[in-house]
Each structure stands twice: as C-alpha cells, then as structure tokens.
Amino acid sequence: MYTILVVDDDEDIRNGIEIYLKNEGYDVIQASDGEQALNVLETTTVHLIILDVMMPKMDGIQATFKIRAKQNIPIIMLSAKVEETDQILGLSVGADDYMTKPFRPLELLARVKSQLRRYITLGTYQQEAAALTVGDLTLVSETKQCIAHGQEVKLTPREFQILELLMQHPGRVYPIDSIYEAVWQEPAYNAANIVAVHIRKIREKVEVNPKNPQYVKVVWGVGYKVEPQ
Predict the structure, then answer these.
(1) Residue 121: what pLDDT?
(2) What is the second-level CATH architecture of the domain 3-126?
(3) What is the rounded CA–CA span in Å between residue 55 and residue 97?
C-alpha cells in the first residue's frame, strides 16, 4: 500500500481527492498547508504528494523547495492558475507534474499511477534510499558520506545539504535565494556571498580543478547547478 499526502487548504477538495485515492487502494494523509505537510514528512513515509500552490502560512512553491532539499518524492502540483509561466515555475522548483483546477479526478488518478510507477518500479525510490550519483560524484544521504573520484571527502553539514540539493536534479538551475532558504531554513537576506563561499569550499573538495569545475557550475545572474555527466 502506497501512502499519498494531499495538501490543500480547501477541505472539500482534500476529501474529494481522498475518496478517489482510497477507492484505488491508496493510504491517504491530509494537510491544510505547507507547514503541516513538512511535519508529516518528518515522521511518515510518503510515496507521492499532491500539493496545492495557493495556501496560507506556506504555499506550495515554498513547500516544494523545502521538500526537495531532503527528498525526491514525486510531487503533483495543483493550481487555479492556468498561465504557462505559472506551470513553468511549478515544474522548475521541483514539481514532477502540474494540473490546473478544476481537474478531472480520473486524470489525476492516471497521473498518480504514472508518477508512482516511475518512482517505485523504475528505481528512483530505491536509488534515493541508497545514494545520489552523478558521474564520479556520490552522496550517501543516510551516512552523510561524499565520494569524489573514488575517495571519500569530508563535507560540513551545510556543504552536504547544498550539494545534495543540487544533485537531486542534475541540470536544474537553483537560484541563490532558493538554495539559502532550503538549506538554512530562513529567509534569504544578502545570501549571495554566503552561498558563494560554501560553493567554493565544495568545489575545493570534490572537483579535480576547482577553477574549472566539472560538476558544480555557476549560471551567472541566476544561481548554481550540478552538471549532468
């Protein structure tokens, strides 16, 4: 039985989605905002998240940033916004799929099944539990080990969290403020220098040539990414 977390500030929508999911045999947990969702994830194994964008306290975009800092659980984002730019934003921050409201319940179920199949059957779930690997760079989340070019290197907790965030989605560019908020768990004020210092130290430890990095790349004026190998 797979557990699905449904996050929406509208109780009727949550209950409606739960009915359809339970009819398909899924276990369902509800949360009314992003903060509640994060609390659930601290104590419960969840296999997929259905996440509304517009919510009080912590919206779906902020919640996705924080979830992606630690986990690669599939996220299907729901929103009343239909503009293409809103969909692009949702997918760029880490959502795996995006549906606009009102949606057809049967289509949502089909997308749930598709995401779970990719996550569980095709190995993403097992890979997350074991390690993150990009080229000759490997992170083991459970033991906080970093293996670079066949040798273990020591990263500080902050350095490990930053690299783990970037390695979860190779090629995705993470804005500096987003990196800071995900790792430091506080609003980003003058974060550019702090993040840059940590990136420099990471490069010194994991790159063969830190001045010409193979993995941790800067995208000027935007942020940082781990280059797919």
Answers:
(1) 61
(2) 3-Layer(aba) Sandwich (3.40)
(3) 18
CB 166 within 8 A of CB 199: no
Those residues with Cβ within 8 angstroms of residue 124's Cβ, 6 or more apart along the chain or in another chain: 72, 118
pLDDT band at 76 (very low <50, low <70, confident <90, very high): very high
Q: Fold for domain 131-226?
A: Arc Repressor Mutant, subunit A (1.10.10)
**Angle made by CA atoms 187, 207, 66, in degrees to the nearest 5:** 25
Whether 150 shows a pLDDT value over 90: the answer reads no
At a CB cut-off of 8 Å and minimum separation 6, what does 29 contact? 3, 4, 5, 6, 40, 44, 46
Residue 123: its H or E element: none
Domain limits of the chain? 3-126, 131-226
The pLDDT, as a whole number, for residue 198 is 95
User: Is 126 a residue whose pLDDT tops 60?
Assistant: no
